[in-house]
Amino acid sequence: MTSALTLDRVQGIVTHVAGPDRIPSAAGPDTPLQDGGFWLDSASLVEVIIACEAEFDVVFDPETDFTDQALSTVRTLYGVIQAKRAR
Amino acid sequence: MRPSRVPTGADSASSAQPPALRPPPIVFNGRRWPSDELAAIAAGWLDYLHASIPRTAGLTAMLMSNHPHAVALFFALSSLSLPVAIFPADARAWRSSPSLPAGTPVFVPPGRSALAAAGTAAGLSTFALPDERPAAAAGAVRFLACPGFVNFTSGSTGLPKPVYIATRSFLVQTAAVIEASRLAPGAPVVGSLQLSTHYGLGQALIVSTVLGSPLGLLERFDHRSLLRLLATGSYAYWAATPSMADVLARAPLPAPRPDAPVICHISAGRLSARTFHAFAERFGVTLRPSYGQTENGFITVDTAAPAQVRPDRVGQPAPGIEVRIGDDPLDPHPAGRLGRVWFKSPWYMEGYGFSPHLVLPGGPDGWRPTADVGSLDEAGYLALAGRADDCFKTALGHLVNPSLIADTLASHPGVTDVVVIPARSPSGQVIGAMVESARAIDAHELRASAARALPPWLQPEIVVVTRRLPRLAGGKVDRAACHALLLQARGWAEPASSPSPAG
Q1: Which residue did the predictor score with more confidence, B373 or B35?
Q2: If contacts are CB pairs under 8 Å, which of residues 216-275 in chain B contact chain A?
Q3: Which residue did the predictor score with more confidence, B28 or A45?
């Protein structure tokens, strides 16, 4: 089922995948997804992507969407999904 | 110091040499890189390499990534007379024990200036390759002519160790992979493993090189890239990890559904029955469990008829390999009895370290010990039961085989992976279990499962459920990080300068 796209929902997916041990105390939309933030490794990023595809009914494009910039923070990831749903 | 010219394979080529090996044609991000183009790029860099390698260098090194430029650099270095150390493009893996000899030139493919700068900052003598300048004389270069390659262990129990493998051993191993898999020349190969690992280098790049096959190369693994690659053509061979197979077995699929590669070898981790069956149901292809290690590469694979393949065993010895079980390989255990796994191999490493300073562990009569415990059945199929050095004693004096606990917890619905390690509590070692699950599982449910199946002294003291186990750059579970999380769950402090939980 497709969910409404909100920043909170995207962050919820990220924190669910990261698990309680990897959530920084001041986690927010601008917390880095990888080193220095949620510490997601490549396998965890794939889990986030799969969950977002299922939740928001979008299909990512590896060449344009899986860039370091797009997968930088919750907010940049939200932006990618938002742009896809607007098309 | 003026660098001298490093001899190339072309300088010493003789009629006794095997047929010329060329870089495989690569499909990468939708672009095809023909073999001739990659060979010409490699040849075009040789002058730069000669000018950069000090006369005193005993080896060369490179930062490997899954990109055609990195493959071309690998082939360029492989044409020289020095061993090639292959580091991943991940700064966390650049420290090893022993460390790379000072002054060893570390080459970085073009366009990776940040990586080169990071290497320099880490104390490596990095050289960023210039942009490609293809050379017309590539035909005279003999690739894979260097004496050997250095891969690194995962570092799951300490710093990564360099593993030196002779080029001829890589090629003999590759012939065994091809024979066991019945791969025909030209059979297309999927490269989703990191080429910096022995597993990825051997079973993606070298296999496709020897077969003269197209290599569908992924820069980094994700389900969309792989599904897109599979949609472009029929692939014959895919060596992968259990987590890659798991993702492909449950990710949303495009329409029409692409075909999976015909032969899928799964190694470097526990293949769950759930993934095994889900993959077969989705793609109609049987995953074939396999077993190997950085020190040797390919050891076993299940080549049985699809209906006979089982996820709880890792197949029979590869052609040329012998496997025995027991404390002493000269007095092996009978079928069905658990013990340490030993093997004899025609393509074992030359030793740990950087040539010529190598340390070769060994057992009697050429038998090589592994860190794994397993059993052979009457038909010679190997089933693994965990790592020998994982067994530990708790503070109460009970000997624990973690695999028994891990298998019990892994059988719980929704669990995808389990790591059981000794956790150093303030009162001594206790049993800690990190459980990976995509859905929220109550730790009490897991404890109840364990209580039904295991004796009281094997009940885990700490159970932590997580979406993803912490993993090292190569994909193996980071046991030190697991230990820290287990202690954190109880609010215990990490002991100062504590040894690895792997023991």
Answers
A1: B35
A2: 220-225, 228, 243, 247, 250-252, 254
A3: B28
Q: How far, rounded to the nearest angstrom, does the alpha carbon of residue B431 sit from its chain's CA centroid?
A: 28
Taking only the tens place, the pLDDT of each residue in B370-429 is 989 899 999 999 999 887 777 787 887 777 878 888 888 988 888 888 999 999 888 788
Q: Which residues of A are less than 8 Å from B251 in CB distance?
A: 50, 53
Q: How far apart are CA A28 and CA A66, in angstroms?
A: 21
* Residues of A in Cβ contact (< 8 Å) with B222: 42, 45-46, 49, 62, 66
B83 pLDDT higher than 80: yes
Confidence of residue B280 (pLDDT cuts 50, 70, 90): very high
Give the up-direction half-sphere exposure of residue B265: CA atoms within 13 A in the CB hemisphere.
Answer: 36
| 3-state SS assignment for residue B162 | strand
CB-CB: which of A18, A21, A49 is closest to B222?
A49
- Angular region, B82: left φ>0, alpha ψ -120 to 50, beta rest: beta
Tell me the per-residue pLDDT of A36-81, one tens digit each, with 9 for 90 and over: 888 887 878 888 999 899 899 898 988 888 888 889 999 999 999 9
Interface contact flag, A43 B243, Cβ < 8 Å: yes
CB atoms within 10 A of CB A14: 28
Burial (CB count <10 Å: 0-12, 13-18, 19+), residue B230: buried
Distance between CA atoms of B110 and B73, rounded to whole angstroms?
A: 9
Task: For residue B356, say if its preceding peptide bond is cis, omega within 30 degrees of 0.
Answer: yes
Return the number of CB contacts < 8 Å for A and B. Answer: 59
Of B30, B254, B468, the CB nearest to A17: B468
Give the 3-state secondary structure of B26-87. EEECCEEECHHHHHHHHHHCHHHHHHHCCCCCCCEEEEECCCHHHHHHHHHHHCECCCEEEE
- Report the alpha-carbon distance of residue B434 to residue B406 in Å, rounded: 9
Instruction: Show the tokens assigned to A2.
Output: 């497709």
Q: Give the span between the Cα atoms of A55 and B14, in whole angstroms.
A: 61
Contacts of B467 in chain A (CB under 8 A): 16-19, 44, 47
Task: Round to whole Å and give the CA distance between B268 and B474.
Answer: 10
Do B204 and B190 contact (CB within 8 A), yes or no? yes
Strand locations in B89-177 (E):
105-108, 125-128, 148-152, 162-166
Least Cα separation, residue A25 to chain B (angstroms): 15
Separation CA B298–CA B201 (nearest Å):
12
pLDDT at B210: 97
Residues 6+ away with beta carbon under 8 Å from B340: B325, B326, B327, B369, B370, B372, B373, B388
pLDDT at residue B302 greater than cutoff 80: yes
Q: How far apart are alpha carbons B383 and B375 in whole angstroms? A: 5
What pTM, to 2 d.p., does this model score? 0.80
CB atoms under 10 Å from CB of B281, counted, come to 9
